[in-house]
Amino acid sequence: MLLFVGLGNPTPNSQNNRHNIGFKIIDAINQKYSLSKQKPKFKGLLTTGNIADKKIYAIKPLTFMNNSGICIRELLEYFKIEAENVIVFHDDLDVDVGKIKTKFGGSSAGHNGIASIDKFIGKDYSRVRVGIGKPEKKISVSDHVLNDFNEDEEEQLNKLTVNIIESITILLDKKLDLFSSVVNNK
Question: Cα–Cα 20 to 30 A to 158, which of 17, 30, 47, 90?
Fold first, then answer.
C-alpha cells in the first residue's frame, strides 16, 4: 500500500495558487487512473484504487497547509501504513517551474506543510518537490506561493503533470532518482 499526498489549501480562491500544485497533481492522478470518487475522510479528500499492481490511497488534506500532518497521521494509523510508504507532492521555491526534484527524508527547508508532516509522522517518507520558482519581483515568499501561476508557467506545469503521470510506475517502485530524471528529461 502506498499513500500519495498532495499539499495545498482548500479554499476556492486558492485553487490555482502555486502552493496548491500538490492538489492539482493528485487530481490528475485520480483522473488518469480512475481512482475512486473523492470522499471526505481523515480531515481530507480521500481516493483509493490500484495503479499497476499497487494499492493506492491518495489524499488532499483539508486542514490547510500548516496542519497537513494531522490528516496524514490519522490516515496512516487507521490503515496501518508505514511512513516510508508515503509520497508527498508539494511546491518548492528552490526548483525551477516545470521541473521536479525528489528526496527521501531531510529538512523541511522552511516549508510549513512539510514541517507539519515531519512533526506528526517523522521524516522517513518520500517527497516530490514540484518547482514553482523564486519570485521575480521583490515580494515576500508567502505572497509568491499564494499567487496564481501565469499562462506560461501553467503550460509548463501541465506538461510536467503529464510527465509525472506517464512515469508514475517508476515512483511506485520508489526509484526516486530515476523518476526525477525521466520526468525532467521528457
Answer: 47
* Distance (Å, whole) CA 56 – CA 81: 11
Catalytic residue among 19, 90, 111, 144: 19
Is 19 among the residues known to form the active site?
yes
- What digits encode the pLDDT tens for the residues 82-136? 999 999 999 999 999 999 999 999 999 989 999 999 999 999 999 999 999 887 7
Count of Cβ atoms closer than 10 Å to residue 2 Cβ: 18
* DSSP SS3 for 91: strand
CA distances (Å), origin 127, targets 16, 55, 85, 185: 21, 19, 11, 19
81's grid cell: 501504513
Domain that holds residue 36: 2-185
Domain count along the chain:
1
Whether 91 and 18 have beta carbons less than 8 Å apart is answered as: yes
Q: Which amino acid is at 133?
A: G
| Residue carrying C-alpha cell 494509523 | 77
